Amino acid sequence: MRLIGLFMLLFSVLSYAQIPGLAPTKNWDLNGYVKYMGSANLPDDVDNSIDHLVHQRFNYEYRFTPQLRFNIGMRNRLMAGDSAKIPGYADLINNDPGYFNLSFNWLDENDLIGNTQFDRLYLDWSNQEWQARLGRSRINWAMSTLWNPNDIFNSYSIYDFDYEERAGSDAILVKRKLGFASSVELVYNPNQDSDLDSLATRYLFNHKAWDMQLIAGKSHLDYILGAGFAGDIQGAGLRAEMTWFEPSQDNWDNEKELLTLESSMVATLETDYSFVSQRNWMLRASVLYISNPQDQDSAIKFLNLPLTARTLSFTNSTYYADIGFDINALSRLTFSGSYYDDGSYFVGINNSYSLADNWQLLGVIQRFDGSSDSLFGETPSLLAFVQLKWSF
Question: Which pTM was predicted?
Answer without folding.
Answer: 0.88
